[in-house]
Design a protein that fits this description.
Largest sheet: 7 strands, parallel
Number of domains: 1
CATH class: Alpha Beta
Strand content: 5-15%
Number of strands: 9
């Protein structure tokens, strides 16, 4: 069974905590052997912009983009996703993304430069308000700023996907009003558990209608009110996204290396097959299971190449 994962924070750990994809230590979750063991055929690597960090936002992106390139140079098993990538081969495809629109520093030329450097998608916010829009966790009713709409339009023009994870409802409405490629790399279903970071059904439907994917993530505070999440909690969100968005919409967006507590039995990529088996037990089988576990995200990601 193959898997594709729409979000991890490994690059931040590589730059700031000395993570090595070949030699995992401590709290590190993503590693080369764990990706292989779990059947991962595509991993999106996010450059997370930490607003509390002493480095300027663009400098943070540059450091993680450099780390991404160094990782690929050191490990030829990892390759950049191309339209002709064959998942049946022995390589793992990767893609660079950005988590936090602060990286562009409000300038379209910086946005274009980051895209030329390989960043194929970007969230507009993380968990703090910025010059582009408001995050979901602040529960603001304000949509994108004028600058935010300009950045989104430029993303549409150059073919860079807008990742609506972390964005508030009004901001998502504004994104969906534009002609852009759109997906949610790591979000869940609000109808299952009312987390601010979860998507309402109307947004799931519209993202699916436009060919995008919604990647269910594994962070316990977005899955359940219990102190620890279980794989069945992920399955409940997955089934709802599948029902609302259809079989071409559901994907996985683990958020590995972006949280301190993982669901029971799912703490790193090597354990993804357990999620596949749980989906099978819940009635997701055959081509639908393949679509949800990897084909949907690879199809969408290839459209950005």
């Amino acid at each position: 069974m193959y898997f594709a994962d729409g979000h991890c924070d490994f690059l931040y750990g590589m730059v700031n905590d000395g993570y090595d994809i070949a030699r995992p230590e401590g709290r590190q979750s993503v590693s080369l052997e764990r990706l292989k063991s779990g059947g991962v055929k595509l991993q999106l690597f996010a450059a997370w912009i930490d607003v509390r960090h002493k480095r300027p936002y663009l400098s943070q992106f540059m450091s993680m983009a450099d780390a991404y390139e160094r990782m690929l140079e050191a490990h030829p098993e990892l390759v950049k996703l191309t339209p002709d990538f064959d998942p049946d081969g022995d390589r793992i495809a990767t893609m660079l993304t950005i988590e936090g629109g602060e990286a562009a520093e409000g300038y379209e030329d910086i946005l274009r430069s980051m895209h030329r450097m390989g960043a194929k998608a970007m969230t507009l916010t993380w968990n703090t308000q910025n010059e582009l829009g408001c995050p979901a966790v602040k529960k603001s009713r304000r949509g994108l700023t004028f600058l935010g709409r300009e950045i989104v339009r430029e993303m549409g023009r150059i073919g860079m996907a807008v990742d609506v994870s972390h964005l508030n409802d009004a901001g998502i409405d504004d994104v969906l009003a534009e002609d852009v490629k759109v997906f949610a790399s790591h979000s869940n279903a609000r109808a299952v558990f009312d987390s601010p970071r979860a998507l309402c059904d109307a947004h799931i439907r519209e993202i699916a209608k436009r060919g995008g994917t919604v990647g269910v993530n594994f962070y316990h505070k977005q899955l359940t009110s219990a102190p620890t999440a279980k794989i069945d909690d992920i399955v409940r969100h997955a089934l709802h996204i599948l029902e609302v968005g259809g079989e071409n919409c559901l994907a996985i967006g683990s958020d590995f290396d972006g949280m301190g507590r993982y669901p029971e039995g799912l703490s790193d990529p090597s354990e993804l097959p357990a999620l596949g088996r749980a989906l099978e037990r819940a009635g997701v089988t055959g081509e639908t299971l393949e679509a949800c576990c990897w084909r949907n995200l690879i199809r969408f990601a290839k459209s950005l190449c």
